Structures are given as structure tokens and as C-alpha cells.
Amino acid sequence: MVDWDLAVSIGSRIAGDGPAISRGEAAAAVAELRADADRSTGLVREFTGLVAADRTAPVLVVDRPGWVQANADGFATALAPMVDKLSSGKSAPSGLAKAIGSRVTGAEVGGLLGFLAGKVLGQFDPFHAPSGRLLLVAPNIVHVERELEVDPHDFRLWVCLHEETHRVQFTAVPWLTDHLLAEMHAIADTLEPAKLLDEGLGRITEALRSARSGGSLLDVIGNPEQKEIVDRVTGVMSLLEGHADVVMDGVGPSVIPTVGDIRTRFNRRRKGVGTLDRVLRRLLGLDAKMAQYRDGAKFVRGVVDKAGMAEFNAVWEHPDNLPSKAEIADPQAWVSRVL
To answer: Phi then psi for 118, rounded to 5 degrees?
Structure first.
């Protein structure tokens, strides 16, 4: 139902190459990012107490087309349960309609990936066999460090601290990837193919209107059961992103002299620039993503300040210990339930 090859082709063209940089500068940036990622492993372990399994999730420094390809692969894996469910329904398209539909969907996904490929600095892909992989998008990191006019060496290590925290989270907590995949399967189990295909266009139109007033696709797609699953996933993602932000800011002052300046300028950048950029961010739920960083960090700091990092790490012991979306906003409720 999705032409992934077309999505990659379109996404790569939209993403472009990134900032102008000499071959020597590019090679130096790649080498420094790899070294910073390696260095970050020990810093994250010392600060969090989490021990990542050795050599289970490689670190890859990629360009924008490389990020697009990696995420198309990841989407194909994560969305497979939903695609299978929709493809098996009686109302599922077939023949020419399916061929045309897959290209239309591929073009839409490609446009999304192309837009995001110019924004993302790094990402941990938990769904890549066998144990995930960490992606650092070199041209975007160089672009942002120039845009913010910050020390490039400090900024690269700062980014690596955040992304390496994600690698440690998933490699030190082996059940986490399976838990997220199970949630994707749970959403697939709630799908009603005929109803979704009949109402899909109307819901997307509603989402476009909603984006103008601050809503997103998530606000209009999904029945109560699906939204309950999305709330659980939101709690997990807020935890992961907030935890990484707390680590990068906690470790930063001891190894990154200009970390305060970097954080101030980067927070301003996270708000987006230009009307179109802000509308797209709302529509795609990226504003909610920014809230995950902020709210998740408040949750982690709230628990650590009250109980300490060792007690906080109970969150990684079992899926039942993960915070709900409501508990992210109320750390004491999580402390009372789990600790």
C-alpha cells in the first residue's frame, strides 16, 4: 500500500544536500561525530547508571538521503501490522487501484520524509535488526551549528550526548523495542479497514483545518481505544526524550564549556521559523514532540530530585513501571504508584 522506493526517491530530492562544505571539512565533521558518540557512551553511563550492551547498535553518520532511506525502512517495519490489516480487509484496493494508490501514498510519505530530513539532527532507530542503530545527520548538525553561531565542537558533543542517551536506553533496556512494536500491533488490532478507507480523506481535510488553530493529525484520527494507546506511547516517548534532555544538560557543564549558550539558542530554534514551518509542525504533531522534550524533562527532574537517579531507574525495570501520559505531568503520582 506504500511505494517505499518512490518515497525514498521523492524524499531525497526534497531534502537536498544541505550546506556547502568542503570534502575535508565534511570528513573532519564525520570523524568528530563518531568520536563524540563513542565518548558519550561512558558519560551517559556514569550519569544515569544505565549500562548499554556492547556493540549491539552501531553508530552511523549519514547524509540527508541516508536518513530518508533509513526512516523509510523503519516506517515499513513499524507500520507493517497496520498495512497488513488494511490490505486484508474486504474493502482493500486491488489491481490498478492498489498500484496507483501505493504511488500516491509513497509520494505523500516521501514529502513528509523530505521535510523532516532537513530538520533532524540525530535519531535512534530501534526497529533496525538486530538491535537498532544510531543515526547522526552530519549536514544538518553543521547547518544548525552555523545558523546558531555556536562552537561547532561543543555543539557536536552536545547533540551526541542526547542521541547516545537514546542508544543506551534501548540497548540497556532490552524489552523496550518489543514494547513499542506491541503498541503498534495494538493499534492495528483496533483498525476497521472499510471505515478508515471511507473516512480517511474527510479526516485528513479536517486535520488540515485543525492545524490552522493548533491541532494536528492525531487530534482527528483515531477512536477512543486508539487514542488510549497513543496516550501510552506519548508517555513513553516523553520519558525517552525528557530523559535524554536531562542527561545532555546534566553532563554538559562538565565537558561542554558553552552548553548554556547552546541550550538558550537551540530552544529558540525549536519554536520553528516562518508561518509555513509552524503550520507543518502543528499538522505533523511536531509541536507535540517539542512538548515531549519539555514535559518529559520536568518529569525526570521531578522524580530524580525527590528520589535520586538510582530510584528513578525503576522506570526501566518493567513495562508496568513506565509513566502514563498523566503521570508525566504529575511525577508524584508515578512515585506513589511505582516507588
So the answer is: -90, 0
